[in-house]
Structure formats: C-alpha cells, structure tokens
Amino acid sequence: MKNNKSYLTGILGGLVGGFIASVPWILMYVYGNMILSLLAIIIAMGALKGYQLCKGKVNKSLPLIITIISLICVTVSTLVIIPVLLIEKQGANVSIDTLKFLYSYGDFTTAIMKDYIISVLFTFLGISGVISNIKKQLNDGATENIKANLKEEKVEIKTEEKTEEAKEEVKEEIKEEKKKTTKSTKSKNSKKKEEK
After folding, report:
1. Is this structure's pTM higher than 0.85?
2. What is the pLDDT of residue 186?
C-alpha cells in the first residue's frame, strides 16, 4: 500500500484550518478591540487539524510547519483581513485602492504594525503549549492521530481531584477532632462528678 501523505496537501489544509480558526481572533480584534493570546491556541489547533485532514506528513518537522502556518494566518489576518473589515465597518467601499489609501496614513500604519508585533508575540505565547504537546507526542513515537490537547487541561482535572481528596481529609480530621473533644469533655465531666 502506497503512502499518500504529502507536505503540500497538508500545508494547504493547515492554512485552510488555520484561517477558519482565525475567525474568533479577527472578530475579537475588530469588534472587541482586543488581541487575546488564548485565541492563538485555536489557530494552531485549526492548523493541525487541517494538516491532518488533508493527509500531511507527520514527522519531526510538524511543529515547525504548524508554527509557520499559524504565523502566516496571524500575519494575513492582522495586516489584510482586519484592515478590510475595519474599512467595511466604517461604511467605505472595500477595494485594494482603499486599503492602500488606509496604509498611506502614518498613524494607521504605526498602530497596525504595533498590533502586528503584539499579535506575533501572542501567537508564540498561545501556540507554545500546542507545539510542545505535538513535540512530546512525536518524541513518544506517535505518527498518527497527533492531538493538540493542552497539558493544562489534565492539570485542572488533577487539581479538581486533589481538591476532593483534600475535602475528604479535612472531613476526617474534623471527625477525629470532634471525637477528641467529646472524650475530653466526658473525662472533665466525670472528674467533676467525682469531686462532688
């Protein structure tokens, strides 16, 4: 049986998945006036899912491919898609000329470049957990079904379990303390009766 996996189809699928996953990032920027590194996680997950669905080769270069795809998605989103949506939001006609005109303003260009630098930093922060998890799975020998799960999800579950265990331990300690207090009270009462 021939191996049909290809970098080209995987990268194209990763780009499609990454751009679809960029929608919350774009909407948050345009309508929420915020950039959230948390949303970069979704972009990396979308890129990985698209890469896998389009049968991209899975090997040690996968983390680098997902990182580059995520950066491309954030770059195009921040420098092209978001300005186009801002133009649309203002009610102007969207065209290449309008986009060029917008970039001709120094204040806009400075602001968008600052936001782009912040976006790239947030992308690295956001995707670092996904990338490290992919690397771990590859180092463990995985070649199929690489998952983008974050380790923090498992930590939260363990934390909740430990919280329940701690609650049970506290309940046991309270019961024992009540027993000691009850025994102490009984012995004091019996000493008082003997003294009378």
Report:
1. no
2. 63
